[in-house]
Amino acid sequence: MTESQRIPRQEMIDIIARIAGEDGDHPTIMPGLSVHRHSVSAKPNCAAYKPSLAIIVQGAKRVVLGEETLVYGASDYLLTSIDLPVLSQISLASPEEPYLSMVFQIDTTRLPALLDAIGPEAAKAPASPRGMTVSKLTPDLEDTALRLLRLLDRPDDIAVLLPLVEQELLYRLLLGPHGARLRQMATTESQPHQIGRAVSWLKEHYSRPLRIDDLASRVSMSVSSLHHHFKAITAMSPLQYQKQLRLQEARRLMLEERLDAGDAGHKVGYESQSQFSREYARHFGEPPRRDVGRVRRSLIGRSSGEVEMLSEG
């Protein structure tokens, strides 16, 4: 890393470390922006990623999407263009050099107007349709992200300057190596946009029995096209996606609302307790009671911020 690259990175580290004074996930006064600090690596934990830009300034993280694993660290960013259930794990962190990152939620409703301004000449076919990807942070994108963080120290400027910095951030992403993913998600008649509608329906109705032909009809796709493009974008079939939503919600219900495994499984749509236990153990590595008991024991003595982090991933 050159000296000119080190200076903005160090300033980002300083700002995030100051705002996130304790381990955990920290919302900020700025809508859509959160900062994160963890001093130790941890076991994989379930998480629900929304369209967002995540930048690690120190440490490293591993994200499991379907059967794929993405690893990213300092100087990388993770671009998520569609809602995705994942397993995430802080893989590099220490008290001396804690994991530090920022996450900015992408307001997809702002993309169409920006695309009109950019014009069709910027459109490029993505190398992969996957809805999550890792890339190296460019100087332009890093500079924009740093200016976003600096606004936290100037709250009176946020109302006026945030929309401008946000627009530049989206502009940089749209013109970047994976901007076509965002472009397609914002294009109404595109297949990624149709998959986005399917994902929205699954999130809202995850506890219902899934009939693929009905889902395909809802998003104006054939069954074969739905299967093909859904897996290409999410790395999962619609049924696997629904299963992850169910299991993550069941785990949350047991941890936060103290439901037992039977009630939690039934509430998320499982009719068979044995099937729920098998699929839960396959996904989380332990049967429900053992997994939830371990997580609860690990939370003893931790701050409420860390409890929230573990329950939400």
UniProtKB/TrEMBL annotation:
Protein name: Transcription regulator AraC family
UniProt cross-references to PROSITE patterns, sorted A to Z: HTH_ARAC_FAMILY_2
Organism, as annotated: Rhizobium meliloti (strain 1021) (Ensifer meliloti)
Domain of life (superkingdom): Bacteria
Sequence ranges assigned to domain HTH araC/xylS-type in this UniProt record: 196-294
Keyword terms, alphabetized: Transcription, Transcription regulation
Pfam families: AraC_N, HTH_18
Any GO molecular function: sequence-specific DNA binding
